[in-house]
Amino acid sequence: MEAGRQENQDDVTRFWREEREDGAVYSAYLKKVTYRSQAQLEDEHEREFSHLMWETQKIRVIKAGTLEKLVESLSTVRGELDSTYVNIFLATYRTFATPQQVLKLLIDRYQMLKLCCEDDRTELNELQLKTIKSVISVWLDTYPEDFREPPNYPCLHTLEKFSLHFLPDSDLAGRARHRIERLTKDHSGADANEIEFRFSICEEVDHMIDNEYHKPLTFNDISSHTFAQQLTHRDAELFRKVVPHHCLGAVWARRGKKGGKEAASVLATIEQFNRVSLRVIATILKTRDHKTSQRAKIVQKWIHIAQELRELKNFSSLKAIISGLQSHPVYRLRRTWSSLPKDTMVLFEELSEIFSGENNQLNSRELLMKEATAKFPDLDSQNKTLKRRNMQKRQSWIDNGIVQGTVPYLGTFLTDLTMIDTANPDMTEEGLINFEKHRKEFEVLAQLKLLQSAAQIYNFKEDTHFWIWFDSVRVYNDNESHELSCAIEPPMEGSAKIKKKSASLGHKPAKFDSSKFGLFACGLEDRSSLSSIPDTITASLAGPLVGHLLSEISLARPMMSHSSSTSSVISSDSDTSPSPYRSCDTYVIRVSLEPSDQASTHIYKSIMLCNTDHTNTVIQKVLEKYSLEGQPEDYCLLQILPDGGELLIPERSNVFYALNSSIDLKFVVRTRAEHETLTLRRKGKRRGKKLSL
């Protein structure tokens, strides 16, 4: 009982106040801590005076500061290593500083403290020196890529020189020298590797001739289990190689320096995701001459592959397959879908529900956190047959001691980090680095690292014949996909009318270029906009947007437009590759409210528009956003046109398809009475101009 009381007391930390000094802002906390040893606390006599065994200490946590102050905070006021802060700083500093800058500040601080020690040797200074040395050592071990700067490796040379002079008894100098020699050797061997690669192609041909001929595989030759295992093998390998700080919004999504090379590990995962989705679409649409029942079997097999991926806890390819099946060219094939067995459709709906955009993708997030480090998935189904089958599989895994790894859908993390990056400024009003922003980013990166550990559990071997087939599948661009889909099932007359009406409203066909920056689930038409519009985020950047967070962001610039189909896949192949199909099922639109006592307003708030939202639904969201009570029927929704005009959205229309996506998604909501008055006033002005002429 006493031990429990002591533990509770030791955990008491309360916010006290905000403290400011030149170049930094701190949050000050008061924490009750023990100042006596555990042996004293366990002593019966000492327990009588337990109320004297505690003291209150002030703990300062930096909120914002100059780079110098942030580096200085790597050690506490007592000179100790603040491991939490060090981890956050090293994981996120690249968005506001370079490795050279940080290393220089650490060395300068060490030298300054060293001089102080010589003049007035204190225990505090000695501890601070030891802490700086520990920070550099942790940095070198944990983030070796920061020191990979061919061909001169300036940071490593600086570190070696510093260590030889100030830390002769340390192994830092030797480690730096060893790292330089190894990286130099690897870099010099790059050209040789390229030559070897060119010759290896010929050797591979000879190897194929010498070995037994293997008949090329077809889609039907590959079992669903093998398919899922191979995709998981590749996804897990790519996910383990993802450098967490490459996922930061400022690194991969906004600034895009050096042609996206900074986020190469992220782009590799994105490309694989797109490759899977494109092949889902291609294998289904290339069956133009097949019967509907044959095409339905291909769709059914993809659903079974998705279920196998679910059992392997591979949410990346699972999401990719669902996106491909939900793409407009595939999803519109009504006869094909109606030919599927009922239990297959139930399974597809359950798998699709995992990635529902409702409540900030709540389903996929809860499922991922629940199963991230679990031995195997917790499968369930509304269908009794599927439920019984899942229970049997679960028991089989338990009996055989099978343990599954986890591969998450990376788009969820990319979206979160991009939203954090956009919602929080880099600098405070005082011109200080906003470190609170980076604490939030680190929470996401920590989850990512945890899942990378879980992805190491898989133990599948690569099947060369499978990947030869996979790479040989011819994929289609958006126009080809649409034409093939319409050749399989011609559009209904009503659909043609809707398409014609959309064109009359100003819709323009989207132009896609596969050489542009590829994003999965929805992307940018022009990568150059990443650097030219620093505060712009793409709608549905990496899958469904973080709904509740986006709704709190008033974007400074319009969201980029997308086609109005259900899902999306974008490739980043060479110019010779067909540009892939791209679409999404959400927009983020900016809406202003014009009250009756105000002619216009420039205050915009962002809301998420889904492909099922009708006019009254959108108006209701706007009223809730502005904390107003009222009936949606008393208001009207209008899209603002570039020439200053307005496009009135019909009362009962689907806003997602009625809007003009080729222009800025800016809207205004005003009362119907006010709109009628404004319309009459404008007509009067135009009539007056005609009379004057």
Would you tell me the structural class of the helices and strands? alpha+beta
How far is it from the N-terminal to the C-terminal residue, by CA? 94 Å
Report the top-level CATH class of the largest domain: Mainly Alpha
Radius of gyration based on Cα positions: 30 Å
Main beta sheet, described? Answer: 5 strands, mixed
* Name of the CATH homologous superfamily of the largest domain: Ras guanine-nucleotide exchange factors catalytic domain
Query: What level of helicity do the residues show?
Result: 40-55%
Strand content: 5-15%
Morphology call: globular
Discrete helix count: 29
| Strand adjacency order, main sheet | 6-5-9-7-8
How does CATH name the architecture of the largest domain?
Orthogonal Bundle
The overall pLDDT, averaged over residues, is: 75
The total count of strands amounts to 9
The domain count comes to 3
Low-confidence stretches: 1-10, 191-211, 255-260, 494-519, 521-584, 596-601
Could you name the CATH topology of the largest domain? Son of Sevenless (SoS) protein, Chain S, domain 2
